[in-house]
## 1
Amino acid sequence: MKRRSFLGALALTPLAAVAGGAEGILRSMNPLSGSRSPLSGSMWIYLWDLVDEGYEFVLQRLAENGLTGISMATAYHAGRFLEPHNPKRKVVFLEDGTVYFKPNYSLYKKLHPKVNSLVNAGHGLERAKKSADKCGFTTRAWVVCCHNTRLGTAHPEIACEDAFGDKLFHNLCPSNADVRQYLRSLVKDIGSHEVDAIELEALQFQGFSHGYHHEREGIELNITAKFLLGLCFCSSCMERVHAAHVDLIALRTYTRKFLESWFSDPSVSASKYPTIESLPADLLTPVLEWRKSVVSSLLEELAENAKKTKLRQMVSLDPLARKIVSVDPAVSSKITGGLLALGYGRMGFRSRSP
């Protein structure tokens, strides 16, 4: 499928189909209201595409295909992108953990945003929104929250810590006070640009397998082992969980023993513990419920700082995925008035002979 054909297909029939198909799932997670909002289509987009292809050209192409807004990456992580459509470059390597707007540094304390070089060259959220306004488009700011390797490496004390005391530098812990303050400031700062909404990605406990450069494991790891490897036992979690009277120390002890056994013979452990549900519920369930309260309370803080700016937390339609990262969609929807539900598809671009 060619790119123009894909945009057209996305903007027309499948848009209504996706909205209708997900409606029952979302209502079951939080039946707030029977009312329905008019359908609209917003595309996730990156600043370098606007710069390389031209702001007006990109927005005109989206408008021609029935889209009504953009969701621009405004605080983003590292990456390598193949861009077949880009007229100036085909491979883009991202600057890790940068923001794509001009921050108000007076809002921040210990942790500070790093400005992307494109912003220093005169581009950014401000210019994108101005162009979008001219086209009658809405502008959403897409913000990655607790996945920031740059900040985690520079400040190891804010990163998640596994059962062995190893830092997971790509994961910022939502229990950490400095992380929470940084995200509050970030939301307040971006909200001052009068965007239509802020989309919150990775506002959660991230886990083990997302995403570092040249990851190596060397042994079989099923979902149970990866889940336990990603649990956080940092000092911030230990301090916060104490007031909730939840035994995180017992779970850390169990997790270390479990993983040591797994490292000794993965095949035996994999057969005994094929799923997360096979783990002892008396140890795990109270911790997972407590972790959901950590994420929900952080979202409440962000909502307070966003003031009139609408927030939408990204959540998976997969219940297991939500369990792993400790996100409660019903509570999130109650706090912000809605959700951004992720339902990834497998359709890609295929060349077609004329």
Note: The first helix runs from residue 3 to 11.
## 2
Amino acid sequence: MTRRLWAGATVGATALALVLAASLAPAAAASPDRGLAWLLVIGSSVHVASTGWLFAVPSVRIHAHRHPRRYLLAPTALVMAGALTTVSLPPATVRWLLLPWLGWQLLHFQWQNLGLTALAHGALTPGDRRSITLAGAAGTAGALAEPRLLQLDVPLHLGLVHAGAGIVFAVVVVRALRTARDPVHVQSLLFFTPVFLLHSPYAAVGSLTIAHGLQYLLLAGLVGAGPRPQPHVVALSATGALLAGIALNAASHLHDSGPTGRLLYGAGLGAVMAHLVVDAGLWRQSRAFPRQLLRERVPWLAPTLEPCVTS
């Protein structure tokens, strides 16, 4: 695979996710059909679980062993904190706490887009970074202002905030598109458009979840497989990610169950947070190890940034 082919596959996967989610989205009170439900499982839970695939890479295990606070202690603490929070607090309080949790997730979506744009083009200018970040912040604010888009049952409706975020998003995107560098850059700027144009939660935010997950699975799969893929290792890792993802998805539906179910639900929330923390260490290209990892596993995609002394 070449950089251009990877970029095309990334943009294609994102566009496909947005189109499929919008076309398959059910009516407001209905459940998704089996096809859309599986897309959501893959884009959310399986992509989270696939972080474990990266630990099949020897250099990742060595790096994690050298930094146990980020890769062992913090994930363990987050899973435990999530479980204890959901089992000890009233469900109504937990729903309110999910607002900032979901905001963190949505911002993570755009941080990934920022990284993908840098990989597709090389070093970004401060203006490029600012516009992509602002577009993501506006999209996140727009989604949080309308919790129904997040399928979150809290009595909050901030229509003016949603509209204002939409205006900011449009201004930032229109200005930035004039100097957009490539299709991945354009995709990153437009990523949160469904939040402001679509009304179904599955179309507006579900589409972003699927797109984000497919982007991640493509890149993580390439890194996990490496330059000389071993079919049995790839098959075992993919199967493990699928099974763990199915388990995470099952836990995500236990929020209204008994104490044991809520404990598992909270542990699942903690696992998602652990995924975000681990990703921040393995993918941030301003650090030495993530650049080294790409040079080792996908040299044709390795960034051209100057090396730094910290990892």
Note: The chain has a mean pLDDT of 92.
## 3
Amino acid sequence: MTIFNEHFLLQSDTAQKLYFDYAAGLPIIDYHNHLPPDQIAIDKKFETLTEIWLKGDHYKWRAMRTLGVNEQYITGNTSDEEKFLAWARCVPLTLRNPLFHWTHMELKNPFGINHYLNEDSAAAIYKNGNEQLSGNGFSTRSLLQHFNVEMACTTDDPCDDLAHHKKIAADSVFTKVLPGFRPDKFLMIENHEVFIHYIVTLESLTGIDIIDFEALVNALQQRVNYFHQAGCRISDHGLSIMPSVTVMDTGMHAELGKLLKQRSNSHFPYAENFRGTLLLELCKMYEAKGWVQQFHLGAIRNNNSRMFAKLGADIGFDSIGNFNHALALSGFLNELDKTNQLTKTIFYNLNPSDNEVFATMAGNFNDGSVKGKIQFGSGWWFLDQLDGMTKQLNTLSSMGIISTFVGMLTDSRSFLSFPRHDYFRRLVCNLFGSEMDNGILPNDDQWVGSIIKDICYRNAKQYFNL
């Protein structure tokens, strides 16, 4: 047996009561993930544990490289079984990294495997897992239902036709699977080749000749309308830092017009002005539709240029940045708030040294119109582990109102990542339970338990109008 029993992380009777009576059975609202909607549309079944569990998981890849595993066993062309065995040999060496917890929680649920994964157990666990995957109950839709996922919001390109989402909706799947609008590539004008490619694609979709800023805004408005009709109610943006300026003068507009008309590989010297001005227009569109907007801030991506050239993006070579967020974030939110066009907003911080900045910034723009309108989002990426989540919860509690928090998300590409919600819920119950035991909070489990329910489920359900 392992440490991952029913009382895992619950260090007192009070914590256990909070968890089992108020948190454990709640549905999951996973309002930001990177699940592939095409796999849900066809109700895909997976052949091996490697396919469902290791492929695309840059958390595991990063750890394997650190432990000296050759790339051929990570993203290379070795067999699925060889890759799984390579990961299994790594797992015992991941103690105190969240991967050790996640790995065994995901083996226990949904596979019911209650053994530590290591070199000795790997072959039997691989065989057991593969046999279960071949049976009923492990297709993408079945897994969503198994984990009681009420809503899952994917991350989608504005040029996507959303055909997979339409099929999912038509099939009346147990889980409401909604698209999320992610326009990052239209904001990164520095990446000229990709930017122009997307402009051409957007033109073909909308029938609009994109020869100036106004035409680009009109074309994107058309896509926002299209996404809205398909059920989208959430946007998302991955930025290192919020734009510090939100205006373009006549000369800048003229330069942009030349670029859009000529489609030449020329440098645009006003990228920050363009990004801020276009993002401001997009955020006004979101407010008009009643969407929630999300900003994931603070990452330095693709640090290793050699590996980026070899393998591409999102393969485990990103890290935490040390940006000066306060003024840019404040200025951008204020620009929207001036005209009462600031919609419900969640911003996520990647550097724990900035937690207090983000937590207090939310309070500047909560105006009483909506409970918890501006949210300091959950610990994400490098911070969705016990220490990172605890720091986020403590900072939000001290400098905001934790009872309005919309809770956890997976931010994952894997259909096995939903135990992260359970991880979060156990942490929350233990955090509140320990303070009840120590006389810091009232020893009233109904009072505290109701807030636990809000944080783990009910606030998100209300916030996203489900």
Note: The chain is about 50% helix and 10% strand.
## 4
Amino acid sequence: MKTIRALTLVCMVFAPVVKAASEPAAELLTSATPADVTIRGVRQAHYRLAPGETLLLLVMGPAPVRFEVRVENGPPAEPVVATLDLDDEFAATPPISPVADPAAISDGGLATSQAASLPVSVPAGKHTVGLRWPAGASAAALVAIKGVKIGTKLPRVAELPPLPPKRSGPAAAGPPPLPPLDLPLPATPKTPPPPPPAVDSAAAPKPLPSPSPEAVAAQAPVQPSAVAAAPAATGPAKPAQLPVTFVAQVGPRSPGPEAWTLALFAGAERGSENFIESSTLAHLGLEATRTAWVDAFAVFQLDWRISRQTYVLGHPSAGASSDASRVDEQRWDALFGIGYDFGPLLQTPRLVLAPVVGLKYVRLQNTAFPADLFGVDLGGRARYSLSQAVAAHASFGWMYNLVHASYFSALGSPLGQFGVRAGLDFPLARGYALSLDYQGDILTFDYSYRVAHGAAAGFGKSF
């Protein structure tokens, strides 16, 4: 068992490190506003793009860059067309559907759309990848960057090979590349135009005054180089079309996703056995969940129950006789497990479906027949968002006891434990949530089953 516990801890500690080390390096070249999106109760790091802004990355390829884009509080039936660039060349114009995702909410308490995955395959070497949010969009974008590790200092863009010319196309429309500014402009010819032919002074109109030098310069044909050197007169400048050196200074980067969730439970249960009186159990519980990598997570549970239990001295067939002894009993449950959410694989963002495996320890502490249970706990979790305000959830776990007591007990040696919790949770703003649950528990002994049913209320926070 020590070997299993050691392997579990090693996997939990080093798996995120190995995955992070295997991701290609990338650097953020544009200043972007960090934002958080709470997805199924877990906060994930995003960047917020206002209409007209661009998210530009410097990537060390080869790398499978993927942008997960959500529309923040957008109109329900107005798709937004974003633009993907690779090395300042047009890559794609994917439409982003603003259909609301009931399982996701932004850090401003606003609804968000379902995530649209925009992949870009970056070849070997250093390349720039850009996501342009259109200036005509009526809502901001929330963008999560996947497939690369942001934070590594890469060489500046000045050290990179020159970018190829931008391809023509409707999606790539914009100002042409800036030409060198030291090209001399063609001089205005100094030779005056030839005089008009002589005409009869009686029939000729009065001569017009000679034009001023300013008027001659204004009427001179505009050269292409002068047009390219002049600033654009209409329309706002797009950040992606500016020289990269203008936006090379990057501010503090957003930290990695913070996916801690703490929940406190309190309730009461009514327990019964085959041949003794029922008893009431007060129940307190604490649960901590941490997203480890991608859709995997680690969970730690600690439960405390206090009751006054009845034990029959001697063989259980004696029944509830005068030999029955009521003793104060405390029960401690501790669980450490890992799970993986298969909901995203089913293309159902509202669903969480995760098996969980871990190690569990149960201690029954009393003055008559104390007992210990320790073993592997197998369980699972499911959650479905009915709307943005309520979700249904259920979880269960079954443990087989690997530690059998050699001393005498009125109920015999404990064999295992099964627990279930199901109910509704109500997400609130800023990562808070409330829950109302049914709680069920079964303890199995050699001579009896201790079955308990009850209710619990919970309060949680994600950060």
Note: The chain has a mean pLDDT of 74.
